[in-house]
Amino acid sequence: MSGQKSGFAETLDHIIRFGRKKPLAMAGLFFLVFLIFVAIFTDVLAPYRMINGAMQINVLHKLEKPFLFLSAEKKAAALESGNVFWLGTDNLGYDILSYLIYGARTSVVLCLSVTVLSTVISLIIGMLSAVMGGWFDLVVQRIVDAWTCIPGMLLTVLMMSMFGNGILQMILVMGIPAGISGSRLIRASAITVKDSGYVKMSEMLGSGVFWKSIRHVLPNILPIIITQSAGGLSGVIMMEASMNFLGFGVDVGTPSWGYMVTNQGRSNMYSAPWICLYPGILITLMVLAANLFGDGLRDFMDPRLKNGVGTYSTKKIEKLSRKYLKRTARKQLNAHKGA
Amino acid sequence: MGKYMIKRILLLIPTILLVCLIVFALLRMLPGDAVDALVSRLSSTGTYTVDRAAVEATMGLDKPLVVQFFTWLGNALHGDLGDCFFQNETVVAAIGRQLPASLELGILTLILTNIISIPLGLYCAARQDTLSDYTIRIISLIMMSVPMFFLATLALIYPAIWWNYSPPSQYVSLFVNPLKNLQMFIIPAVLAAIAQSGMQLRTVRTVLLDNMRTDYVRTAWAKGAAEKRVIFAHGFRNAMIPVITLIGGSVSGLIGGSVIMENIFNIPGIGQQVIVAISNRDYMLVQGCILVFSLFTMIINLIVDISYKWIDPRVSLDNERRTGA
After folding, report:
1. Nearest to A310 among B18, B149, B213 (CB)
2. Assuming Cys at both sites, which of A111, A174, A235, B80 could form a disulfide with B75, CB separation 3.0 to 4.6 Å?
3. Cβ contacts (< 8 Å) between B128 and chain A: which residues?
4. Which residue in the set A157, A265, A310 is minimally distant from B278, CB to CB?
């Protein structure tokens, strides 16, 4: 916190600077924030609200087309009866728009909690391993090595079938493995901090592992933690959707985008192809936003890259070298004349 | 080099043991075990009256867990991974039957990924900030973001609707009918490659650009080397280490991806098998499959580490810190 500016104003300053330098990343962030808002206000936004935790089933309107693709008389009829399905309905009679809005809540809750959980786990493992060193580090690192050798997808499926379907289970099952494999980077960066003079000084003054980790190591690796979590976000979204797609995801009644692609989408894929189109596009957009945000944040936080990756262009170099050649040629010519 | 390799291979042993232990422990924590599944299946037909204890005894599940683990481990060292609970064959035979399809899909995907990503990445770096660079980068971002299963589902739906075409779902071995086999594998392989190559393309581009700013590349330009030579011999050669690391890392992702692709395109691969085995609580088969997968990943990691030395002679392998990795 520097100068007269309050913490909030400074944060705002940072955000504005980030937006100016990385407009695309800012757009990604906006989309993610928008999704969070949708997730908070689901009950206000959804045209067909959940009742007692279950989606409304419109028995008379199964596999209805999206509103804009209906014929004129059907449109009129829909407007008159008040049963407007902007994105159509699926084979169960769920309004797709409402389903997607509730699915956003599932996605947002899952992604945020998985990211937080995995960050905390990787921090604990990575930092303790780096700061304590010795046999503890050796043993923990061997376990982490073994853990990362097992293909993540299979491990997740295995653990999901162990715990059963559900949001809480998914958070645990996705967060713990991600945390364990993410601890490597934290450890690597914590080790470089641990060897620096001030940590040794603090150790000489009698500080313990806990104090050293929290007071000295943590603030210094904070940028790395933030970039890693932001960069991992897209992977979490993708994983969550894939797990739901494979059927090892949330409960059957819980709306989820990945589940919609496989369950309602694939079973009616020829008669109603739009059902799996919408959730798929939403997942893509969310991953895209997370990717843009993560990339932008990484570049923004990396002091080596002032303006993204350095510029290299053949034309520029050609021009420069031609200029250089001309100048040397002229010099030589002048020298020749002088002589 | 030789010393390093021996050290690495020796280090593999505790890792493999730990992998076995983790998988074994996880599987035994699964609620509802194989015996229940088997007993209910046998007694539902009504012809058998099943004695639970006898079933457990024949499967070797009545012994203490420690004994079970070491029996399994000892047999595994002899190449015997036990018998499947539900199919009438050994685990090794079951894996051997399913592995070729997975392997073929994986290799095809890997080849296609590299064919797509490396030339395009190099092109983008060489023509930085031109229209084509931006276009390719945007496309690669989208490729990175599309979930594989969504792409595959679309590939099933729209060709069927537009051209009445659906990919063949009858598996034919490569050695019986190569053409039919390729017809089945090419679509999932291309889709998986698209999903994989977005990331790789961007890495190739970034790494090459990083390298193009170094002093030796400037020297190469200054001495008048042609652009091709500068990019390939000076830039790309030095940029290869992070790229190889990424390729090695993507192998384990390929295995995860193969689960989805095999599921959608009905390919009788090992990923499909594991999913079925997990839901059946077929401990032996799951243990075997995951062990094979993990071994595979470990060997790839080893090859990647060794290839660093071959690419960049400056890398000292005994040092734990890898350059650029």
Report:
1. B213
2. B80
3. 311-313
4. A157
Cβ-Cβ pairs closer than 8 A, A with B, add up to 163
| CA–CA dist B195, B191 (Å, integer) | 6
Q: What is the pLDDT of residues A78-114, one digit of tens each?
A: 677 767 777 777 777 778 888 888 888 888 888 889 9
Query: What three-state secondary structure class fits A202?
Result: helix
Are A309 and B209 within 8 A, CB to CB?
yes
Question: Residue B83 pairs with which residues in a beta bridge?
Answer: B90
* CB proximity A135 to B under 8 Å: no
Do A102 and A47 touch, CB atoms closer than 8 A? no
Looking up tokens 């500080």 gives A207
Contact B255, B106 (CB under 8 A): yes
d(CA A110, CA B30): 23
Give CA separation, B33 vs B41, B94, B280, B291, in Å: 13, 21, 8, 20
Residue A66 DSSP class: P
| C-beta separation of A250 from A167 below 8 A | yes
Residues of B in contact with A157 (CB under 8 A): 259, 274-275, 278
Question: For A222, how many CA atoms within 13 A lie in the half-sphere containing its CB?
Answer: 6
Residues 6+ apart with CB under 8 A from B167: B155, B156, B183, B184, B187, B188, B265
Q: What is the pTM of this model?
A: 0.78
**Cβ neighbours of A70 (radius 10 Å):** 17
pLDDT of residue A82: 67
What DSSP assignment string belongs to B279-301? HHT-HHHHHHHHHHHHHHHHHHH
Chain B positions touching A245 (Cβ under 8 A) are 147, 149, 260
Please give the Cα distance from B106 to B257 (Å, whole number).
9
Give the pLDDT confidence of B239-264 residue by residue, as tens digits. Answer: 888 888 888 877 767 776 678 888 88
Rg of chain B taking only CA atoms, in angstroms: 24
Query: What torsion, rounded to 10 degrees, do the Cα atoms A89, A91, A92, A93 define?
Result: 30
Instruction: Using DSSP, state whether B19 is helix, strand or coil.
Output: helix
Q: From CA A74, how far away is CA B294, in angstroms rounded?
A: 57
**A119/A224 Cα distance (integer angstroms):** 11
B212 touches A316 (CB < 8 A): no
Asked if A147 and B22 come within 8 Å (Cβ–Cβ), the reply is yes
Q: Check if the beta carbon of residue B262 is closer than 8 Å to that of residue B269.
A: yes
CB B215 within 8 A of CB B180: no
Q: Which residue has the higher pLDDT, B68 or A30?
A: A30
